[in-house]
Amino acid sequence: EPEVTQTPSHQVTQMGQEVILRCVPISNHLYFYWYRQILGQKVEFLVSFYNNEISEKSEIFDDQFSVERPDGSNFTLKIRSTKLEDSAMYFCASSRDSGMGEQYFGPGTRLTVT
Amino acid sequence: AQKITQTQPGMFVQEKEAVTLDCTYDTSDPSYGLFWYKQPSSGEMIFLIYQGSYDQQNATEGRYSLNFQKARKSANLVISASQLGDSAMYFCAMREGRSARQLTFGSGTQLTVLP
Q: Chain B partners of A91 at a C-beta cutoff of 8 Å?
């Protein structure tokens, strides 16, 4: 069964460093998303992406964040200058052509900023 | 106001029994979707079931069913014949509007299935 994959599973970085989190969405899906979950808290929406552009973003998704689909399969989230409060689990998700139904999540990347 | 409210931080159920996890939502948009996800201790988010606001019948997927009461703005998840592997955190989520696709999640319910 096709699934969303994410790499790395765990990333440790120092404050101020740039990180890139990678995702491979399900191949026939057209809508892509990033969410984050700070330890012990609810899942929060960051951004959605369709047709090579951002379609929605939350207040969390400020200028420090960017997303890109560099090729036909990968979808990346870049944090330019990490802060301690960026430590969280980051989930990539994708959904089918209408984007209105279920979103399938990847296993997540745990980001630890020290 | 919270968009999604899950009032049960923790629930216990005996193996093989049914359990209901509560979820209420708040929206003024007539078009919305409701989702339930399972998060085991390993951390991944597993999609369980979806209900659209215009769907006439309650959604069912195997042992999962969604008790959708539109007038009360509730979308409770019912798990029948609980199994030990059902022990996990369960999140209710909502998508609002015809064009929006972002999901808003509740705070979750930790379900423990007892042998």
A: 45
Residue B13 forms contact with A (CB below 8 Å) = no
Q: Please judge whether A100 and B95 are an interchain contact, meaning their C-beta atoms are less than 8 angstroms apart.
A: yes
The Cα of A113 is separated from the nearest Cα of chain B by a number of Å equal to 19
pLDDT band at B101 (very low <50, low <70, confident <90, very high): confident
Nearest to A89 among B43, B102, B105 (CB): B43
Cα A17 to Cα A11, A62, A92, distances in angstroms:
12, 16, 21
End-to-end alpha carbon distance in chain B: 38
Q: What is the mean pLDDT of chain B?
A: 94
Q: What is the dihedral of CA A48, A49, A55, A60, to 10 degrees?
A: 40
Tell me the average pLDDT across A10-32: 95
Answer yes or no: are the C-beta atoms of A111 and A88 closer than 8 Å: yes
Sign of CA dihedral A23, A29, A35, A37: negative
